[in-house]
Amino acid sequence: GHREFHGLDLLLSKETLEPRPDTEVLVDTLLPALKKAVADKGSARILDLGTGTGAICLALLKECPQASGIGSDISTDALETAAKNAARNDLGSRFETLRSNWFEKISGSFDIIVSNPPYIRSDIVATLDQEVRNHDPMAALDGGQDGLAPYRLIAADAGRFLVENGIVGVEIGFDQRLDVSAIFASNGFSLLDAVKDYGGNDRVLTFRR
């Protein structure tokens, strides 16, 4: 019913993906950029798309008291869980939830846009380990026919919501670095960093426009 992530104790629920240690790499990769934004102007805003338990945004907020964030998700269940997690970790005053299908209901601008989107090809979802298949929500896993649909949506729209020199950070599947980089490049973004997870697989990409 709960899971430790980056020093936070997080509740899980039916429609949330269980946060895994490899996703902590995404948090650690983005922290320097977040801290630099705060150093430059005294505050910073984060948008976490498909927030689930709130893990990524809440971990960043915990490490950076001057930052605030929005966790968006299409799942009401996930948003309720994320709000509870913010409250139980004393981050509720700096975190808000918003029901939105990707950027549909988003407004304002952000220093960091982050997402661990569904990135598994539809035909592979059924073959995943039983632990994943039976407990993680399908909506948080299925990335469409080629597993890249969410990255196309994020890359197409993120530029409208980033401050100047803002950063997009995404988690990817182990074999998606080149494809995802190409999708962002075709939308005017340049790759800042490609980071491997604890197992030595490509896991995190960050971009600036």
Description:
By secondary structure, the protein is an alpha/beta fold. It has one domain (2-208): Vaccinia Virus protein VP39 (Rossmann fold, 3-Layer(aba) Sandwich). 34% of the residues lie in helices and 27% in strands. It has helices at residues 21-41, 55-63, 76-88, 122-125, 130-135, 149-157, 177-185, and strands at 2-5, 8-11, 44-49, 67-73, 95-99, 110-115, 162-171, 190-196, 202-208. A seven-stranded mixed beta sheet has the order 5-4-3-6-7-9-8, sandwiched between helices. β4 (67-73), α3 (76-88) and β5 form a beta-alpha-beta unit. It starts with a strand and ends with a strand.
Mean pLDDT equals: 90
Q: Kindly, what is the distance between the CA atoms of the first and last residues, rounded to a whole number of angstroms?
A: 39 Å
Order of helices and strands: EEHEHEHEEHHHEHEE
State the low-pLDDT regions, or none: none
| Cα radius of gyration in angstroms | 16 Å
What is the name of the CATH architecture?
A: 3-Layer(aba) Sandwich
Number of strands: 9
- Helical fraction equals 25-40%
Strand order of the largest sheet: 5-4-3-6-7-9-8
Q: What is the tally of helical segments?
A: 7
Class by SSE composition: alpha/beta
Map the helices and strands.
Blueprint: E1 2-5, E2 8-11, H1 21-41, E3 44-49, H2 55-63, E4 67-73, H3 76-88, E5 95-99, E6 110-115, H4 122-125, H5 130-135, H6 149-157, E7 162-171, H7 177-185, E8 190-196, E9 202-208
Parallel strand pairs: 3-4, 3-6, 4-5, 6-7
Antiparallel strand pairs: 1-2, 7-9, 8-9
Helix pairs in contact: 1-2
